[in-house]
Write a structure and sequence with these properties.
Elements: E1 7-8, E2 13-14, E3 19-20, E4 25-26, E5 31-32, E6 37-38, E7 43-44, E8 49-50, E9 54-56, E10 61-62, E11 67-68, E12 87-89, E13 94-95, E14 100-101, E15 106-107, E16 112-113, E17 118-119, E18 127-130, E19 135-139, E20 162-165, E21 168-171
Parallel strand pairs: 1-4, 2-5, 3-6, 4-7, 5-8, 6-9, 7-10, 9-12, 10-13, 11-14, 12-15, 13-16, 14-17, 16-18
Antiparallel strand pairs: 18-19, 20-21
Length: 174
Amino acid sequence: MLGPGAKVWHFSHVMGGARIGAGTVLGQNCFVGRGVVVGAGCKVQNNVSLYEGVTLEDSVFCGPSAVFTNVVNPRSRVPRKHEFRPTLVREGATLGANCTVVCGHTVGRGAFVGAGAVVTKDVPDFALVTGVPARRTGWMCACGVRLKGSARPSCPDCGARYARGRGGLRPATA
């Protein structure tokens, strides 16, 4: 099901039972598997495959050729559809070009996965992770700018302040 204003570019395939939210854009040569949920306002760039078990919440950005898996130990001759592990990408997260998200993990709200990184464990809210395997190398603002400071991180661009919370950072209240 395509939500209002959703766009699907050339050579992309959306399987039955998939849900694509309002205003979402799927780039060229994308695949969306059965039961996949893509929230509203997502941008899925060219050559991204969202396999069964993947959920993208609202406003997620998937860079070109980002990779998702759904089985930890695939074999051509051994059917493992009963072993699919879910992957959740929380609201406002960014996945850089050519990164890989190994199934069974959650990428937190507002998190930023650097280009080429390999996510092998959960990513905290607003964390910046880079490398192979991906490790936290900083914190990101909801506006997409790297935060300054460690005790009370703040955004040098928009001025937003953050506090440590369960599962990463959270926007600070006055």
